[in-house]
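Notes from the 1:1 (GR / supervisor)

We went over the backlog. Supervisor wanted to see one worked example end to end before approving the batch request, so GR pasted a single chain during the call. The sequence is below; no edits were made to it. Supervisor asked that the structure be written out right there so they could see what the output format looks like.
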Amino acid sequence: MQKRTINPWTWQEQRGFDQAIEISRFDRLLFCSGQSSVDADGNVQHAGDMRGQVELVIKNIQTVLTAAGYSWQDIVEMKWYTTDLEELSASSDVFESLLGAEQIRAAQSVYVVSEFAMPGLMLEIEVTAAK
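Structure output shown during the call:
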């Protein structure tokens, strides 16, 4: 696979994302459903606790990526959905401690939503990966 980042500006560098990523000559493409803070049985965990939810969402994404034969470096797009942007921002150190060494660079968007289908959830992340 060939991956080319497109950044006509530099302001996104300090926020850790790319404006666009072009992929070509890839063999596989993975679209992940939004991963949230649920256990293996689909039960909500860490209701009302953004830091706990961030940690479990990252672990759940890792589980899906591994099961499909992908890694964090294969991610080309991330869509973040949250009910509380301030709490999510305050939990950025959790992401950094769990994923800092992974050097994830992806096209990213963040959406603030009023609620999720499962009460107690505060975060959901969708990823697209390519190999």
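Supervisor's comment: The chain has one domain: 27-130.
Batch request approved.
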